[in-house]
Write a structure and sequence with these properties.
Strand content: 15-25%
Number of domains: 2
Low-confidence stretches: none
Largest sheet: 2 strands, antiparallel
Distance between the termini: 75 Å
Number of helices: 1
Shape: elongated
Order of helices and strands: EEEEH
Helix content: 25-40%
Structural class: alpha+beta
Number of strands: 4
Radius of gyration: 31 Å
């Protein structure tokens, strides 16, 4: 089994030229990833109050937006992530595939039910023609 993993890194600059502050968030793109993102690690660099703060999230859905809210700052276990999915045409394809599967299964079930009914009728007919000695 071939296992390939990639590492993407994005950082937020504290200041740029002319002492302008950067926006308080980082945007990173992974491109067209057809598979789940196995591990997403969010870290804040160490400062005078603490060591490096790290939180790892697992199994992120592809083609989604993930917002990580690091609050409270000093407790990474309480950080939470919000996952935003954009509906696409794949929902329609998935619905059609699900509907077709259910129709096929309902057809198979109806055929088996019909065969069972015919067999029960046949057995009932044979039973009605037998002579019961208990009736005497």
């Amino acid at each position: 089994m071939i296992h390939i993993s990639f590492l993407f890194l994005a950082v937020q600059m504290s200041q740029s030229g002319q002492l302008t502050l950067e926006l308080p968030y980082v945007i990173i793109g992974l491109g067209a990833t057809p598979n789940f993102v196995e591990k997403l690690t969010v870290a804040i660099p160490p400062n005078s109050q603490s060591n490096q703060l790290i939180r790892t999230y697992t199994q992120m859905i592809p083609n989604s937006q993930i917002v990580v809210v690091p609050s409270p700052l000093m407790n990474p276990e309480k950080w939470h992530s919000k996952l935003f999915l954009t509906p696409s045409r794949m929902i329609l394809h998935t619905g059609i595939a699900l509907g077709a599967t259910l129709i096929v299964l309902a057809g198979v079930l109806a055929i088996l039910q019909y065969r069972e009914k015919i067999e029960d009728d046949r057995e009932r007919k044979v039973q009605s023609q037998r002579f019961h000695y208990d009736a005497l």
